[in-house]
Specification:
This protein has 294 residues and is α/β, with parallel strands linked by helices. It folds into two domains: 7-81 and 176-287, 3-Layer(aba) Sandwich (Rossmann fold), CATH 3.40.50; 82-142 and 155-172, HUPs (Rossmann fold), CATH 3.40.50. Helix content is 31%, strand content 17%. The protein contains eight helices and twelve strands. The protein has helices spanning 20-34, 56-66, 82-94, 154-157, 172-182, 195-208, 243-253, 264-274; strands at residues 7-10, 39-44, 76-77, 98-101, 130-133, 140-144, 148-152, 162-164, 187-191, 214-218, 220-222, 285-287.
Amino acid sequence: MNPVPVVGRFAPSPTGDLHFGSLVSAVGSYLEAKSAGGLWLLRVEDIDPPREVAGSASGIINDLSRLGLVADGPVLYQSSRLGAYQECLNLLLAKGLAYPCVCSRKDLSVSGRYAGTCREGIPPGKTPRSIRLRVETGVVAFKDQLQGHVSDSPAETGGDFIIKRADGLFAYQLAVVVDDNFQGITQVVRGTDLLESTYRQICLQKALGFTSPKYMHLPVVLSADGKKLSKRTRADPLKHQEPATVVKQALNFLGQNPPSDLSLNDLWTWAIKHWNNDLIPRENAILAGSTPPG
């Protein structure tokens, strides 16, 4: 029997320019896939129009290409997949694994946990706002390829979570799970800030009968003030920076210590050949520009 081919992905949201924090995730996902002889795919998560910035998607794709990160296939836009999300949502509703909810954020507990108010039906006189997944009691555990064995009890920490929002948009959790399955993704490499989402996504994968990919959660890149680099914090974009220099910085952040005198093409050849995820720091977050611990 032939082994399942390795398929990784990078899935940015078009809410601003590509910045160093996103690049670290892109480089990690690319090298984890390519060093195993696998494929690396690109998906644009454009299902939240109120947050999107015009021209961001094409800008991110162009920046990735300029840095030598080119997908092994057409870019998948989530905005073209709304029918698939609705189909899976209908399936969950038909099986009783999801239900309509009238509650808003102010109805959550102080901890942010949903109390299950609408689990057994909508209160009389109320109109449904969103749809939630019915999260069963129990522990979700998996072996992260960097963080080791991790576990959580989603029913206790967050409770039933939203998979279709009150504004009619599909939630991130549902879209990601459906598209990872559609694209045959076997490994997901991203920041530790998304670890909580992973537990929820595993719940959804089980509910839909999907196979869970392997996961690797990388250290989050922090700015000098200790905040996560993001488009919201106006992190420095990469579009004006020299490609080989920026890629070397990302490799150093990931503990790879590349030679300093390589051109961009030679740098990628070296990185694929010498990629060693055992060298990635086992930290949740690291300041940008600092030397990762050995």
